[in-house]
Write a structure and sequence with these properties.
heterodimer; A: mainly alpha; MetI-like fold; 2 domains; two-stranded antiparallel ribbon; B: alpha+beta; D-Maltodextrin-Binding Protein, domain 2; Dipeptide-binding Protein, domain 1; 8-stranded mixed beta sheet; 4-stranded mixed beta sheet; 22 strands; about 30% helix; about 20% strand; globular
Chain lengths: ~325, ~650
């Protein structure tokens, strides 16, 4: 198992290098001059040129492309992710707070998603084609198909505008609050985006769990278990669900890694200062270093998710020969 | 199953109907009148709050010691020299910019800040330079209680004009116009000849004779103080006959430290508020008890200012519900209607001191011909633009001016008589285009017949070389203005034989093709662009910039070169500040000539609306030159 993990990690290295080269190349191919976008337009021509030259050098744009790439990679290993032209500050400083906010938002979403969707998926499979199953099938289809912006706007209109129970979005003001007030402010701001993201995410998980459970419940060993007179609860949870866990585990692992992935539309609508919102702003502003860093980060998270998923798969299912 | 589906559909419909209900019932608007002078007392507000507002006591609007302002995202740059964000600038104003030697008052005039300045003199020296000697009031304090002296003003001027400040990543034009600025700014000398520290309460700024006379000369001799003890610990100012310099072990290291720390969290300030925090797109400021007062000696009363990023599509709903106290500078018709209809909101409007326009490159392509530029001006219905973009809340200007400019207030009626009003007129456009090289059919010899032109663009104008009259327009993405330009010109331009196409791009592409189009050579493609401008208090078209000497630089973005216009501009700026009548006369000539040349087609002038929750008093003091942060001393909150 250890050899397998090491082997997989070694394979990941060239994959990541290829990804970074592609990302770097795409960013360099993007039209526009990031330095021009940074500088204010109230400078005199000669001042402008001096400021332009200073910033051009500071960003390392005077170096050749291969050198820029190598410097970027080496700097990243040392925790220096470059300079955000959009914010005129270090990328690490720009993304730290939004990543934390995205994780805070997604932790609640993931907990709710798993707590809601797994029991419902199991129950739907056990009560297949019943009222409960039909309801959740239709419900998941609607929430899955519904654009997140529409759902967000509906919830905003109901709970923020019409009822006035919840804030319109943005982030809680931590500096003037303390104790329970502080916690409540966070919760209030979290409720609507959490509901939106949870409703959208449970749809697919319910269906995956349901289908995995239906497959498991149709197996011969379940029939055998029932024939032995085991209680239905034992049959469902000890025999069927353990086997249904294999496809479900992939979803769960992927979900855990999605902690770091921002939801661009939802975060933007609710002005949640998350990484998805930052990324879309960076793209609009052609902040190449910030885009490259975030995409590299997401790529790293994705390949790690696949790796962990494979390892978990092997741990759960002894039939999978890792060698 | 069918019953279940029906039930779900009913639930979904109820959900949607509930979501689409209006938030409030329409009532009369509260306040809507332009103001240029701060009101003496908070405005009376008799409207009753809605049930929604009363039902939630923890709303921002109900916290009387805190003013919460909703804005788009901020960058978090809280000292001068970084970034273009207007929302960062609002915070910078509250932290630093009230204490300059000269400030811009709500009417847009440069006035001496009497809270900082005890007295001043302005005299010409033997070389024709103008020496401003400022004597400060005694007892001025920084927010930490330490004395604020002339040294801090001199230091602010010296470090912001220094090459080290540029090297530290900042940009600044502070010090421009003063004696020896170029040499000091370029690093040729570390002594700034135009700056002198006399004693703890006296300093001198010397305007270079080459820059005189200058109508806005007060703008050259002002700076807001910077806390030298914090920015460059251990540094001193050394003044000789040659000027002043900062004596510091490593000025660059000190300024790098400023850009890494003070820039994001200023510790010691002179403005009406102190910095508390910037976290999660929310800035919190606290009242500075040591604030010297605004230029008239007024001080704010609200204890805390919170400026936070909120969703912009619903920012008007946020103030209606009391989720924030102020959202400023709204232009969208639907937001204005909603705010006017809400009885929890006070609205205040003023016309923008600027305008949105369609800019044209005057040195290249068909738009190099003034008749083509005028023809394009006659091919757009500007009233339709205002309806489409601003929901009717705006005005039309005929040249490069703003309704709020003091010159317009003095001579606006004369100007309107002198200028040619223009709007959609296809016949006039054809008449003008017949005077250009594009007056033929496709064979390059048969005269173009306007009666054959149709909206489908199948019959176009050509020149003798058989080249069609083609205009390529670049507009920014997700802009209503770009949409209406496309709608109008795609329909109207073919009627005058013009093929007009529109490309949408981001702002960086616009920078490349508009500001730096002259660098593109054979890759140059776009002729017209849509942008907007807001004039500063100092209207100096040389600087802003239409002078032919600036062709071939991004400053003269339209690349307009006209000797007559050059001459008028130079005459305008070469007046003494007292020669206001002469300035207005020249301004009338300037506007007339500018319109004749038509480098930009003015499309609309917005009417800005500030919305304030009903517990906020004093929002009616905002003007085109003074946003809410500039009149914070006149804004208060009270329970109603």
């Amino acid at each position: 198992m250890t050899r397998y993990i090491i082997k997989r990690i070694l394979i990941l290295i060239p994959v990541l290098i290829c990804i970074t080269i592609i990302l770097f190349s795409i960013n360099k191919l993007m039209p526009g001059d990031p330095v021009k976008a940074m500088l204010p337009t109230n400078l005199k021509a000669e001042q402008y040129q001096a400021a332009y030259d200073a910033m051009y050098e500071k960003l390392g744009l005077d170096k050749s492309l291969p050198e820029q790439y190598v410097r970027w990679m080496l700097n990243m290993f040392q925790g220096d992710f470059g300079w955000s032209t959009m914010n005129n500050r270090a990328v690490a400083d720009v993304v730290a707070e939004p990543i934390r906010n995205t994780v805070i938002l997604n932790v609640g979403v993931i907990i709710l998603q798993l707590l809601i969707s797994i029991p419902i998926g199991i129950h739907c499979a056990v009560k297949r084609r019943g009222l409960f199953d039909n309801f959740w099938q239709v419900f998941s289809l609607i929430t899955w198909s519904m654009p997140s912006f529409f759902l967000s706007m509906c919830l905003l209109y109901i709970f923020a505008i019409n009822l006035g129970w919840l804030p319109f979005g943005g982030m809680p003001n931590a500096s003037l609050l303390s104790g329970m007030e502080y916690v409540l402010a966070w919760l209030k701001h979290l409720i609507l985006p959490t509901i939106v993201l949870t409703l959208i995410s449970i749809a697919s998980t319910i269906r995956i769990v349901r289908n995995a459970m239906i497959d498991a419940l149709n197996q011969d060993y379940i029939r055998t278990a029932r024939a032995k007179g085991l209680k239905e609860k034992v049959v469902v949870y000890s025999h069927a669900f353990r086997n249904a866990l294999i496809p479900v585990s992939t979803v769960v692992v992927g979900t855990v890694f999605s902690l770091f992935a921002g939801s661009t539309i939802t975060e933007t609508i609710f002005a949640w200062n998350g990484i998805g919102k930052v990324l879309i702003s960076a793209i609009n502003a052609r902040d190449t270093m910030l885009i490259s860093t975030m995409n590299t980060f997401f790529s790293l998270v994705s390949v790690l998710a696949v790796l962990v998923s494979d390892i978990v798969y092997g741990l759960i299912d002894p039939r999978v020969r890792l060698s | 199953m069918k019953k279940l589906m029906a039930l779900l559909l009913v639930v979904a419909m109820v959900f949607v109907f509930a979501a689409c209900q209006p938030a409030t019932s329409p009532v009369d608007e509260a306040t809507e009148s332009p103001a240029t002078e701060p009101a003496e007392s908070p405005a009376d507000e008799s409207e009753e709050p809605t049930e929604t507002a009363e039902s939630t006591g923890d709303k921002a609007g109900d916290k009387l010691d805190t003013l919460t302002v909703g804005t788009p995202d901020m960058n978090g740059d809280f000292i001068e020299g970084f970034g273009n964000s207007a929302y960062d600038a609002a915070i910078r104003d509250l932290l630093h910019n009230y204490t300059g030697l000269v400030v811009v008052d709500p009417a847009g005039e440069f006035v001496v800040n009497e809270s900082a300045v005890k007295e001043y003199t302005a005299e010409l020296d033997e070389n024709g330079n103008k020496v401003y000697t400022w004597t400060l009031n005694e007892g001025l304090l920084w927010s930490d209680g330490s004395p604020l002296t002339a040294q801090d003003y001199v230091f602010a001027m010296l470090y912001q004009a220094s090459p080290q400040w540029v090297e530290a990543g900042a940009t600044s034009s502070v010090g421009y116009g003063l004696l020896g600025y170029q040499a000091y700014n370029a690093g040729e000398t570390d002594v700034f000849a135009g700056v002198k520290l006399v004693d703890d309460y006296t300093l001198q700024f010397i305007i270079d004779a080459a820059e005189l006379p200058y109508f806005y000369e007060l703008s050259y001799v002002t700076v807001a103080p910077a806390p030298m003890a914090v920015y460059a610990p251990g540094a001193t100012i050394e003044t000789t006959e040659e000027g002043s310099k900062i004596v510091c072990d490593d000025l660059l290291a000190a300024l790098n430290n400023v850009t890494a720390t003070e820039r994001f969290a200023p510790t010691v300030v002179s403005g009406p508020y102190k910095f508390v925090s910037f976290e999660n797109q929310t800035v919190t400021l606290e009242l500075n008890e040591n604030f010297m007062g605004d230029y008239q000696g007024n001080k704010p009363t609200i204890q805390y200012i919170v400026q936070k990023a909120i969703p912009q599509d619903t920012n008007h709903d946020a103030v209606i519900a009391g989720d924030v106290d102020i959202v400023a500078g709204n232009i969208e018709g639907y937001k204005i209607e909603a705010a006017k209809a809400a009885d929890t909101v006070v609205t205040h409007s003023y016309l923008r001191n600027g305008f949105g326009y369609l800019a044209m490159h005057c040195d290249w392509g068909p738009t190099a011909d003034v008749n083509v530029r005028w023809a394009l001006a006659y091919l757009i219905d500007r009233n339709a633009v205002i309806d489409y973009v601003l929901g009717g809340y705006g005005g039309i200007v005929q040249a490069e001016y703003g309704f709020a400019q003091w010159m317009y207030e003095e001579a606006g009626a004369d100007l309107e008589e002198m200028l040619t009003p223009f709007n959609l007129n296809v016949d006039k456009a054809n008449e003008l285009l017949d005077q250009t090289e594009w007056k033929y059919e496709a064979d390059g010899t048969t005269p173009f017949d306007a009666s054959k032109a149709t909206a489908d663009g199948s019959y176009l104008r050509y020149n003798a070389e058989g080249e069609p009259l083609q205009i390529h327009h670049m507009g920014t993405e997700e802009q209503d203005v770009t949409d209406i330009i496309e709608i109008q010109y795609v329909a109207n331009a073919p009627l005058a034989g013009i093929a007009f196409d529109v490309t949408r791009a981001d702002f960086n592409a616009l920078l490349d093709n508009y500001y730096y189009g002259y660098e593109l050579g054979e890759d140059r493609y776009y002729n017209t662009f849509n942008l907007a401008v807001t004039f500063s208090a100092a209207f100096d078209p040389y600087m802003s910039s239409w002078h032919s000497s600036k062709c071939g630089t991004w400053e003269n973005s339209c690349q307009l070169a006209d000797e007559q216009l050059d001459e008028i501009m130079m005459q305008m700026r070469a007046l003494d500040p007292e020669q206001t009548d002469e300035f207005v006369d020249l301004w009338l000539q300037y506007e007339t000539r500018w319109q004749e040349l038509m480098p930009q087609i003015p499309l609309y002038s917005n009417e800005y609306y500030d919305f304030a929750y009903y517990t906020v008093d004093g929002i009616e003091n905002t003007t085109p030159f003074a946003n809410w942060e500039d009149v914070i001393c006149y804004i208060s909150k009270s329970a109603k």
